[in-house]
Fold this protein.
Amino acid sequence: MATRERRPATRRPPRPPGRACSSFRAVTTPRHPPLAALREPPPEVRRAAGRLAGLRVDMQRLKRDVLELAEIGRNPADRGIYRMAFTDADMEAKRWLADRLEAAGIPAWMDGAGSVHGRLGADEAPGVLIGSHTDTVPRAGMLDGALGVLAGLECMRALGERGIALERPVELISFSDEEGRFGGMFGSEAFCGLITPESLHFTALDGAVLHEEMRRCGLDPLLALDARRPPGTIDCYLELHIEQGPVLERAGDAVGVVEHITGLFKWLVRFHGEADHAGTTPMELRRDAFLGLAEFANEIPRLLEENGTERSRATIGKTQIMPGAPNTVPGEVEFSLDVRDVSQESLTELADALRKALAAIARRRRLTMDLEFQAEVAPVPCDAGLIGLLEDVARELGVRHRRLPSGANHDAQLVAGIAPAAMIFVPSRDGKSHSPREWTDWPDIEAGANVLLHAVAERARRPA
Ligand SMILES: [Zn+2]
């Protein structure tokens, strides 16, 4: 990718809103038809050139894995899962995954960044890589990340058991610290060669320093710099993930084929005015910093409409009013601004328009302004060939599907910089994620896993 997220050395930006819970009414759209068709493949599947009729994941086994992994790091009091990167629970989950791979006869290992790998097929051809993550946010649900890893494991087992001749190895990777205890996407950054020795000094909000925590877990932090995957050794990357939004559920589709992964920029904005007495200072003499923020917030919908696309999102998720006393005119405000779109062009236009609007408001209200650029991530299109393959497979399996963008960031965004990448989404009940309420119906999980399986099989059987 062209730009990488830049992070302050000791401060983590707030969670991207695209991944946070969103609240909306439960929808009652009829579900997609039950997946009976999946068990008895329709004739066109059997006819499909080169496709493997009857190849399916073992849903009972996948379900058992999901429920078993969910017990690692579970807090019985709030039912949330706590497997933040490089905690004991996170390491236990990594060992559990490695054991599962080995039990299936698939060699497993951990790279220097703490990402767990498994590999089916011994030859040296570029591998078909399936990935996601098993670390979580605090008080997480059981599917974010874990589902992609476990679906990948199940695909490897299904391919291995059928004894399907593979022209390329199929590899699984569970990336470490996707969720951001130490900034996020540490495993995929290391894998793509994007970390430096400085990255190892990242300090978490709980005060833990990355290299110290890695050492505590028995890892040599400097080896993370060796986790880079040589270019040209990956055929493609596929990631199955929960949608974390409402689109698929509302549409009644079982599977989403991701077209673009959103890009974003994050700013921290400060307006400085003057703190004065709320009773004695006439309105026209005030330099009220909060009114500057209020005016700007009110302009956001218009600015997006005029300068963005229908996929533009802008969020002020955190504000602080200073000095913060009920009887004092706010002399200063600080607020976050998180802006996302799948088009770099519209992100650039939005940045320009938002900056001009902030400056105009500051001028009008006699405020001064600081703008701190906290992060920038370029949008990434998924690979057109892989999108087409996923759609063909879904159609042939009789799975209701649609294309959609990803509003959240994923490891796939980084891996797309070194190999063709694509993502499969499955519906999130009520759009919830990062919460014990996170859920996807089992038939949808089965449909998504079977689409992944056939796409992987197709790629891995192509002559190297
Ligand atoms: Zn995730």
Summary: The pocket of zinc ion is lined by residues 133, 144-145, 178, 241 (CB under 6 Å). The first strand starts at residue 108 and ends at 110. DSSP finds 13 helices and 14 strands in the chain. The first helix runs from residue 36 to 39.
